[in-house]
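Friendly challenge for the regulars: who can give me the structure tokens for this chain first? No prize, just bragging rights.
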Amino acid sequence: MQPTPLRSGEDVFKIEELRLKKVIELGANIINRRISRFSGWKKSSIFWNFPYWSTKLIRHNMMHIKKNFFENMFNTVLDVDGKTKDNPKSREDLKELCRRPELHVIDGKYSKAIYTLKEESKKLLCDG
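First reply, four minutes later:
Bragging rights claimed.
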């Protein structure tokens, strides 16, 4: 059995001609079901609205990259234990990368980064 041929972004974007409805649009199920019978496409993804989407070879990776970036930033700003990227190992790397001794680990200790939230700010953020 032959593998499915790799489609370029331009090939994928020809699906706009099918006029699939977004899932949240009224009547999308009925219209998309009818279109999918002859095209194989079931819905119009919100990701196709991104300007760079057609140039990406593996388009689904962008979703994972954005998710991972958000989680790393969020966990670091909230200083989530075991999840933050501001840790002794990263601070050791700063000795080679950065000439800011106030950020270096000294005797196993280091100061919290200025962008981490204090307890009151964390509660305010989470409670809304």
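The chain has a mean pLDDT of 81. The chain has five helices and no strands. Your move, everyone else.
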